[in-house]
Design a protein that fits this description.
The complex is a heterodimer of chains A (262) and B (438). By secondary structure, chain A is an alpha/beta fold. Chain A is built from nine helices and ten strands. Helices cover 33% and strands 24% of the residues of chain A. Chain B has 18 helices and no strands. Classes of the chains: A alpha/beta (262), B mainly alpha (438). The complex binds adenosine-5'-triphosphate and magnesium ion.
Chain lengths: 262, 438
Amino acid sequence: MTTQTTTPLVELRDIRVAFGGVHAVDGVTVNLFPGEVVAVVGGNGAGKTTLIKTLSGAHKADSGKIFVNGELAHIETPRDAKEYNIETIYQTLALAENIDAPANMFLGRELRTNWGTLDDRAMENASRTVMGRLNPRFENFKVPVQSLSGGQRQSVAIARAVHFNAKILIMDEPTAALGPAETEQVNDLIQQLKAEGIGIFLISHDIHDVFDLADRISVMAQGKLVGTVNKDEVTKDEVLAMIIMGKMPGEATQDELEHFHD
Amino acid sequence: MTNAPVEAPEQTELMDPGNGPGGSFADAIRAMEIDTRMLGMIGALLIIWIGFQFWSGGGSWSEGTFLSARNLWNLSVQTAAVGIMATGMVLVIVTRNIDLSVGSMLAVLGMAMAMLQAEILPDYLGFDSPWIWIISLAAGIIMGAVLGAFQGAIIAYVGVPSFIVTLGGLLVWRGAAWMMASGRTIAPMDATFQLLGGGARGTIGYTWSWIVGILACAGIVFLLINGRRQRIRFGFKLRPRWADYTIGGVSIVVVLGAIAYLNSYLLPPRLAEQRGGGDIPFGLANPVLIAIGVVLVMTFVATRLRFGRYVYAIGGNPEAAELAGIKTRATIIKTFALMGILVGIGAAVQVARLNAAVSGLGQLTELYVIAAAVIGGTSLTGGVGTIPGAMLGALVMQSLQSGMALVGVETAAQDIAVGVVLVLAVALDTVYRRRASA
Ligand SMILES: Nc1ncnc2c1ncn2[C@@H]1O[C@H](COP(=O)(O)OP(=O)(O)OP(=O)(O)O)[C@@H](O)[C@H]1O
Ligand SMILES: [Mg+2]
């Protein structure tokens, strides 16, 4: 929850990333406590994906520091991030289409036999165990993931994070490609993981999901952090005002807020 | 969660051990879990073989010479070198790269091995030293790994497309091969080294051929039993018993039949005379044995090792592989180094068979190697391809060429035919895949 005095699970401090002249992320500071969901919201191109990529090791920050459990963390590659139990579910599903679900789940961290060879059966077994928890109807363990539906692929990506005991989970629009039932399923899962004490950064464009799931909401616009608010202390309109006008609650006039109503 | 995988109705059906295949042929194939592309390729191969048997006999099966033990033995030797290299090309292409330099690299490595054993090493070791062939072979293979890794490093770290790097390699290595010997022909090869190339002496003979055949059968039985046991251990869907028996039975008959047939090819009387006379069968040729070994090792590398898994993952989605923490650049370098090693082996076989190295060695070989991989089902878009498929592709291509040579089709027309078959094979495959995914 919000009023913790303990050290945050993770803190991104004053992160900057520029692509050529574009300041994709411009001095952003956010943090996350155990068992907390922090939604990162903002318009297209606001810099959300770029920000969290610095935490998942997919992209190096130009400057800024990352702290995990209060200690300075060195994250330069996806491997490094995994060392800190940071798992990521990417906006563009990062799965190798030509190999099956267990192979994707264990990609880069394969189980091996005493002989040093791949232990495919053990990996399939472990996949079945995790999947039994997440998506019991999933049965397509032996086919390349390209023949899976969007929702099924998403469960593979989530199963990967769950199996490897994520402490910090980054979800970049995890439900963007999903139907209502699958979205519901993923949202239930987020609640479940949160209850287990995992900290989750959730990037989403769905303001309703954000209000359903998040404890705090960090709003970004044009690479900058507009502000971070407690969900319980703001209205959806106020968050929309932050996203669209970059105005903190209280700054926007009632008139401007009225504008967002359907 | 329980792993009782026998819940789905279709699976309970397949679990039933006693029943015969039932249903259609397609159902049977599916139950046996045989790759339909592989089956198609074997079908194409049979058609080519039967066609040439009739053609070479002027329309009469019994007068045909294509399927004679002698011709098939030659075919097996001719297929070996290209097949060996094609297994490496599969992995290169799977990673969305290409290696156009293999023919020229073959010339450089062949030339190096030849010069070592014919001109350099004898000065130090004397002509009869058993070390000569070993050092030459090892040097060729190591040099192949180094040249391959070098090209791979430029591709992976500098980011120059493999097409360009290896196109450069094609020119550079070809020129280097010429300069190494100023265009001379280097001959003869060390007596032991020559055995790598096959020929009348370079075979393992009757008894050992049977031993290899029997070991192969034992291996097949072991794989089937082990596969079944593993599936039971983890409670996975079992292949019906009749399918295991069919696969095992057919494989064993094919293996033993091939050995028996090749063993019926006898040394010509004059050569047999020199070895005490009587009926002396050739047996499996050494290059064929090497090719079989390469297929086994490469299949193991591609399917059972982490490296192989990474090769396929990179081909499927390079970004995902990177994000999963795979060292993609190192993997690319290793892939090209492996290709270089296989070119070294291929060069040894080729030079040993010719008993000489010329600077024109391996011309156009890159194209045959790529064609073999592609006919064997490797997709140039990356991510897809199998080692046995490539070997079969090499066999299909070599069958066409040697068949046409046998019936007297001129070389130019042979090239046309092989080119047409290449495009046709890929066209069929593309259509098939589109249907399968639709
Ligand atoms: N690899 C890149 N090269 C150049 N510019 C980039 C790159 N990745 C992102 N950008 C730029 O950085 C800015 C932020 O992009 P980012 O993907 O972080 O936005 P986002 O908030 O995730 O948007 P969306 O909601 O559309 O996913 C954009 O202006 C984008 O064009
Ligand atoms: Mg994004």
